[in-house]
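Reopening this one. Same input as before:
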Amino acid sequence: MKKKLATVWLDGCSGCHMSFLDMDERLIELAEQFELVYSPIVDRKIFPEGVDISLVEGSVSTDEDEHKIHMIRERTATLVSLGDCAVTGNVPAMRNTFTVNSILERAFGDAPATHPELFA
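Same output, byte for byte:
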């Protein structure tokens, strides 16, 4: 029986999925061993139960991401963090060191203060 494989991306650039797809013809060999049951590259809306292996790319950056990763962990036998964002937070985590106001001021000058309705 084939193992059930899921791939997931959270907050990040999706580069790890692109690298995964770059395996080209080796994916055909893998397809003989796994059934892809969930992935952003297929049109499945609900993460299934009973997944054998989940490859998770990206960082947990929102409440929705947190909910999703808890559900994935509950429904997956083996979860693999894939790439720098999943392991360290990488670029998405860098935003945690800046306040929203400092970013708006840097990007828009004093516009947020003088036109708050544009940034609500």
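So the earlier flakiness isn't reproducible anymore. For the record, The mean pLDDT is 85.
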